[in-house]
Amino acid sequence: MKLSRWSVALILAISLLTESAVACRPIRASRKPVIQVAILLDTSNSMDGLIDQARTQLWRVVNEFGSARKDGFMPELQVALYEYGNDGLPAAQGHIRQVLPFTTDLDKVSEELFALRTNGGQEYCGQVIGEAVRGLRWSLSGDDLKVIFIAGNEEFTQGSVDYSKAAQEAIGRGIIVNTIFCGDKGQGLATKWGAGATLAEGLYVAIDQNARIAEIEAPQDREIALLGAKLNETYIAYGVKGEEGMLRQSAQDKNYEAKMSANVERQIAKSTANYVNVSWDLVDATKNGAIDVEKIKPTDLPPEMRNMTATQRKAHIRQTEQKRIEIQTKITILDGERKKYIAARMQKLPPAATTLDEAIIAAVRETGRKRGFEF
Hints:
- The chain is α/β, with parallel strands linked by helices.
- About 45% of the residues lie in helices and about 10% in strands.
- It has two domains: about 35-215 and about 350-370, Rossmann fold (3-Layer(aba) Sandwich); about 220-345, no CATH class.
- It has helices spanning about 5-25, 50-65, 105-115, 125-135, 165-170, 185-190, 195-200, 220-230, 240-255, 260-270, 280-285, 310-345, 355-370, and strands spanning about 35-40, 75-85, 95-105, 145-150, 175-180, 205.
- It has a six-stranded mixed beta sheet with strand order 3-2-1-4-5-6, with helices on both faces.
- Strand 4 (about 145-150), helix 5 (about 165-170) and strand 5 (about 175-180) form a beta-alpha-beta unit.
């Protein structure tokens, strides 16, 4: 019997995944490593380009984290978000707002990025770093990677909180501060953005926040986009957050429809272990042990599952999970082909201005390796 291209690829991928699982079995008792990333964005008037880059490049950055390993384990990614320098925020609080505490809900991160609006103000870098250091639940383990990314374009010295003390407080708790200046590199150094990173063992990078992102359309893009849409059919909403979660997932897909590269990166991210929705998806919740399908109330289930027996529920969830794995495997195979195609095309293009995603990826790789992470 002649096997189709996908059958061969799937068999190969599943075989590799099995071998990888065996190879990556822990040789010692160890909890899953964690990467905590706090993103501090300047939302003053001149930062529309920065916010747009954060939105469109979020999933490319997430996919970079998806390649991270420590001691053979894939880390859990937690993201927090702050905005600062916005006149719409109370002056008594330093024009600073915690948009999100640490979360694994990446659709929520995307939703909040699209909700940000710029409005001129005073940018207090030292104060917002201090707020993030003290206002978030940082891991107490020295084995985890804890990083702050602060991006803006005014003097790093503004405000009543000394940036050097804030940076030293951060690194004293094992939190690395990476600074991203939106403008000329020399100007960023002159206004202490470089010094802020150095004090907290981080990386200083200057970017062009208004640079247009190179859109390289790959032959695999359309198929990945279609598979990403099919992936949504493998989510089973449950409980009070079920409908909200499905609507958020759909809304974020629509936010990226107009930009093919960003949309494809999102669909690729949805095929990785970093995209997990335990709070509203029955497949993820069951796999992670958050829900016992034998004890869940019928009213918390979707209508088509309410009259099922416990055995039927388990079978339905397993079948849905298997369908998801098959789609994710196809996306992963296509992603590998797509990366090779884009890398070859990029070599033929002239050097472009550094953008937010490149700055974050460069800093994560450099600081992560110092903490024993591989990319």
